[in-house]
Amino acid sequence: QVQLVESGGGVVQPGGSLRLSCVASGFVFSNYDMHWVRQTPGKGLEWVAIIWFDGGTKYYGESVRGRFTISRDNARNTLYLQMNSLRAEDTALYYCARTLSTGPSPYDGSDIWGQGTMVTVSS
Amino acid sequence: QSVLTQPPSASGTPGQRVTISCSGSSSNFGSNTVSWYQQLPGAAPKLLIYNNYQRPSGVPDRFSGSKSGTSASLAIRGLQAEDEADYYCAAWDDRLNGWLFGGGTKLTVL
């Protein structure tokens, strides 16, 4: 069964750090680009970051650039998002998602999504 | 500014055909393909359309997509109650080097 399972969310104070994980199963993880996308409760989707299948290329959304770092461990079938200098506006449900085609294919849609992990930044 | 613009809401009655528009710019729609997602309440987004008009396996052919220049649209024919959801367009933006999502359209089945 193809699936993604996120973990690592929680409540953190402004300025704090958190690392999210996304474990993949049911497909060859190392063949696919991976994204992080977030959604503030009751609001729309916001793309956060992408990492190419081999980890060699990474891009970030403007609102997180310089604070968040996307990485992957293909041997462990795991995607990560290291979040530093967290702000209240980073409060959201964070999804990991797989691109539709084998990489590099950043332009394609994402056909597999996890269930999300909630991050709350509050004092 | 790189923005994808969708109407905030749309509605239709069962059996009707509904279209949702999405407007982009040369840096996204002008050079890249469009995807559409459906998000049911409490669920993760689901890919409905990719490469402007293609459907992943399992997506009913009631859903169709098109793109012309810097505009795209999602059409749903034979509207059903279970189609009530939020719909998002998306595309890669060459200026931002990243994905853009539209603001989302809440579809209500009357």
In a few lines, what is going on in this structure?
The complex is a heterodimer of chains A (123) and B (110). Helix content of chain A is 0%, strand content 50%.
Report on the architecture of this protein:
The complex is a heterodimer of chains A (123) and B (110). In chain A, 0% of the residues lie in helices and 50% in strands. By secondary structure, chain A is an all-beta fold. Chain B has 110 residues and is mainly β. Chain B is 0% helix and 45% strand. In chain B, strands 1, 3, 4, 7, 8 and 9 form a six-stranded mixed sheet that branches. In chain B, a hairpin with a 4-residue loop joins strand 7 and strand 8. The chains are: A mainly beta (123), B mainly beta (110). At the A-B interface, strand 5 and strand 10 of A face strand 3, strand 4, strand 7 and strand 8 of B.
- Tally of DSSP helical segments of chain A: 0
Biggest interface between chains: A-B, 25 and 27 residues
What's the average pLDDT of chain A? 96
Distance between the termini of chain A: 39 Å
Which descriptor suits the 3D outline of chain B?
globular
Low-confidence stretches of chain A: none
Q: How many β-strand stretches of chain A?
A: 11
Q: What percent of the residues of chain A sit in helical stretches (DSSP H or I)?
A: under 10%
Detail the topology: elements first, then pairings:
The complex is a heterodimer of chains A (123) and B (110).
Chain A: E1 3-7, E2 10-12, E3 18-25, E4 34-39, E5 45-51, E6 58-60, E7 68-73, E8 78-83, E9 92-99, E10 110-113, E11 117-121
Parallel strand pairs in A: 2-11
Antiparallel strand pairs in A: 1-3, 3-8, 4-5, 4-9, 5-6, 7-8, 9-10, 9-11
Chain B: E1 9-12, E2 18-23, E3 34-39, E4 46-49, E5 63-68, E6 71-76, E7 85-93, E8 98-101, E9 105-109
Parallel strand pairs in B: 1-9
Antiparallel strand pairs in B: 2-6, 3-4, 3-7, 5-6, 7-8, 7-9
Characteristic terms for this protein:
heterodimer, A: 123 residues, mainly beta, 7-stranded mixed beta sheet, B: 110 residues, 6-stranded mixed beta sheet
